Hints:
Elements: E1 3-6, H1 16-26, E2 30-32, H2 41-51, E3 57-59, H3 79-96, E4 100-102, H4 111-128, E5 134-137, H5 153-163, E6 168-173, H6 174-180, H7 184-191, E7 195-200, H8 216-225, E8 232-234, H9 247-254
The chain binds the ligand O=C(O)[C@H](O)C(=O)CO and magnesium ion (MG).
Amino acid sequence: MKFSANLGFLWNDRPLPDAIRAAEAAGFDAVECHWPYDIPADAVKAALSETGLPMLGLNTRRGDVSAGDNGLSAIPGREAGARAAIDEAINYAVAIGAANIHVMAGFAAGDEAFQTFIANLKYACDQAAPHGTTILIEPLNKYDAPGYFLTTTDQALAIIKAVGAPNLKLMFDCYHVQLMEGDLTHKIAALLPSIGHIQFASVPDRGAPDHGEINFDHVFEVIRQLDYDAPLGAEYKPGGNTDDTLGWLKHRSAAGL
Ligand SMILES: O=C(O)[C@H](O)C(=O)CO
Ligand SMILES: [Mg+2]
């Protein structure tokens, strides 16, 4: 199996280019990030070229984080900010060769929010398509992000259907889906055609995938048997030195898994 280091959490104690180098040294096959915008795209691109790792994806900016924003695209009245964040994300992704953009919905509810999200996602998919970029939407759990618009895979599928764009996919984060729905392996199998990227962390503490209520040896094996061979995103909180949390990766590599 191949693994991608999510540098929003792993090695986030250092500048993004150095985190890319650390991920390569640790044996990851790819990297992904959250909000890289403070780092010039040229510096990120240079670290990617130097290491040979692809950057799989990044997120749209969340808005005014100090005022509590966690994305803008489902918030009625915030369309201008949402689309500026989408444009910025596409420009950055194209500059560094990132294949996916997670368009963040934000805190909202109801039909107006649904219609706003659909319209902004149509805009994002139209703008991204000429670059071959995929747009991702990700259900987040109600404990970490109470009030977030998108919380379940059923809701994500309804949104994907309503937008009707071939470059709109589901970000299936095992951590969030386990907390909201469970039944991970049936869900991954059923949703595979709609999945653009898979992420993981232990539940409930969002740590390395070697403890907690999910047996990742089993989940990864099911994913392998489904012939899904894209890198899986390690999006967990190391709670200290990332290099000290990589026993799971070393164990898999030593076992040839
Ligand atoms: O928190 C997550 O799971 C995300 O993947 C993210 O991109 C930031 O909310
Ligand atoms: Mg995630």
